[in-house]
Each structure stands twice: as C-alpha cells, then as structure tokens.
Amino acid sequence: MVHSNSQPILNVPTNITFLLDTEPKTKTEAVLVAALRELHAETQGLKQRMVELQASNVLNKTYCNKLHFQLAMKEEKAKNKGQRRGKLMGDGLPCMLTGDEFYERVVQFTEWQKEEEEKKDSS
Description:
2 domains; rod-shaped
C-alpha cells in the first residue's frame, strides 16, 4: 500500500517553554502548569515514537522491495529451468548412446537453441 500524502512532523510554532518555566501564583495556575508539562512531555514522546515508526516503515519498504526482487528472480530462474536451458541430456544422468541417437539429439538440441535465440531476439 503506497501512501502519497507524506507530511513533515511540525514543531510547535510558538515557544511554550516560558509557560512551562513560569512560577504559578495560585493553586489553579499550579494545576494548569503541571498539566501543561505532562501534555508537553507526552507530545514530545509521541513525536519521537512517530519518527521511529516512520523510520521502521522506510526500512520495511526497502526490505520488501528486496524480497520482491529476489522472488521475481527465483520465479524467472524456475521458469527457465523448466525449459531445459543449456542441457543436452535433460536429467543429467549418464546413459549409453549410440552414434546415430546422440547425433539426432545434438541436432534437435541445436535447433532448439536457435529457436530460443530467435524468440529472445524478437521479444
């Protein structure tokens, strides 16, 4: 899933440190300043967590792209392997061949190779 609406993490536009450092004069101000400090700390923690999650998403996307490429190469290799690419004798096991039989296989194999090259060139 691709998200195209990426936005930077914005800092608080106004500097609220002077509010956090003020000495409360009343009990109500003390409660409000304490709540402001807690919320500011929570907001900073959430911003840090969001940055970590975004970094994790970037790494996961890179890893998924790598796996996607590897899978495509593996599937292509398996597809080409099924075409007996480059082997005269398909199973690779030794067998006794007569002169005529071997010659016919060589002729068929070279014709097959030429056809494959023509297909590849025309694609």
